[in-house]
Every structure is written in C-alpha cells, then in structure tokens.
Design goal:
Layout lengths: L1 H7 L7 H15 L5 H7 L6 H14 L2 E6 L2 E6 L9 H30 L4
Helix pairs in contact: 2-4, 3-4
C-alpha cells in the first residue's frame, strides 16, 4: 500500500517553455545562488536534473541569470540588475514608518511590563 500512495503523489514532469518558466520563476522568488542539482531537487522533480542544467545555462546566456563557477561547481542567481529597485523617497518613507512602529512597540512593551508587574502607569 505504501508504494501506491507514493506513486499517486508524483509531480508531472515539465518540458520546454513550461520548464524554463518554472525555473526562472523559482530563481526570481528565491533570489539567491543555487546549483543545478539544488534547483532540480527544490522543484521536487518537476524538471529533470540534466534539463535543469541546460535551462540554467541558456538563461545565463540570455542574461536572465548570472553564472559563477567555483572549481567544478557552477552556481546561478537571478541577474540583480533586472530586479525592480525602490526609489530613495520610498525607502525613506518605509524607514520612517518602521521607526514609528518600533517606537510604538517599545511603548506597548513597557505598558505590558508595567501591567504584568502590577505597577500603575
């Protein structure tokens, strides 16, 4: 019975453009370096290892990924220059919002500490 349940959960193998799109989507989502074996394993066998390697090299040649070789191992990461960047004004706004939330959080922590020790405000 155990083998029957195992075969029911098989992931469909992707080919061609579907496989390429899935790998590119995964690399964008994770935004960190991976080897071909890691990508294939993390996609749970949806794309075979050999196909994954070929697709990653093709994406690197097109400029979608950056390829870096260390010894015999090659790593791939999404091309950082193609990622969206936040304007400086929006970053400043988010930092100000973060600071106000942290200040509010500190005040609430003090209030909670005082309430739990029974000290009046």
């Amino acid at each position: 019975m155990a083998s029957k349940a195992k075969s029911d959960t098989k992931v469909p193998v992707l080919k061609g453009q579907e496989a390429e799109d899935k790998i590119l989507e995964y690399m964008k989502l994770m935004n960190r370096p991976f080897g071909a074996v890691d990508v294939a394993a993390n996609l749970k066998g949806a794309v075979p290892k050999a196909t994954t390697q070929k697709i990653l090299v093709a994406l690197a040649e097109r400029g979608e990924l950056t390829q870096k070789t260390y010894g015999k191992t090659t790593f791939f990461v999404i091309n950082q220059s193609k990622l969206d960047c936040l304007p400086a004004e929006e970053i400043a706004t988010l930092e100000n919002e973060l600071k106000s939330v942290e200040d509010e959080n500190r005040a609430l922590a003090i209030e909670l500490r005082n309430a739990s020790t029974g000290m009046p405000l």
